[in-house]
Amino acid sequence: MEINLTQLTSGSKVQIDFDCSLSPDDNQVKEARLIAWGPIVAHGKIYLVDKDFYCYLELNYNYTKSCDRCLEPMSQMVSYQATILLKDKALADSYDATETDRTDIDVGFYQNYFYNPEQDIFDYAYLALPQKSVCDSECKGICSNCGCNLNTETCDCADEVIDPRLEVLKGLLD
Ligand SMILES: [Zn+2]
Ligand SMILES: [Zn+2]
Questions:
Q1: What contacts 116, CB < 8 A, 6 or more positions away?
Q2: Which of 110, 120, 164, 170 yields a CA-CA distance of 20 to 30 A from 32?
Q3: What does the pLDDT look like over 79-119, one tens digit per residue?
């Protein structure tokens, strides 16, 4: 998807709206350690402030991965918003990220007044993946001893593990 930014510089538009839907490929799903991912549904708008192009992005997607505690597959929705300052790629080498005093603004690049948002959309979608995913905040996880799923099964392992302090007492009683 290539967006022609001259629509803004010529004044024929004050804002460019775009919608797209990206499906990460199998490798990207694997690299992100997911079972399934996407499609990543994006809505964006690009506008001009003084001489700078800004792109506001809104992302929504669903992902499936193994619960970090019980390892059962779980799905979750993610929503994410970002505002990107678009820079001319031809000037990218001379551009120093420390020059901008706006640290809350991310940077993307356009080429010959065409901007392709797909890589940025994918990068932000990746960034927005939660560090930890649990099927339920109450998920009990798996038993560290026998590996059974404590949400659906019960085991006697906890009973068999004797507190070392009790072990001392037990020794005294013997
Ligand atoms: Zn779980
Ligand atoms: Zn167990």
A1: 1, 2, 3
A2: 110
A3: 999 999 999 988 876 656 555 555 567 899 999 999 999 99
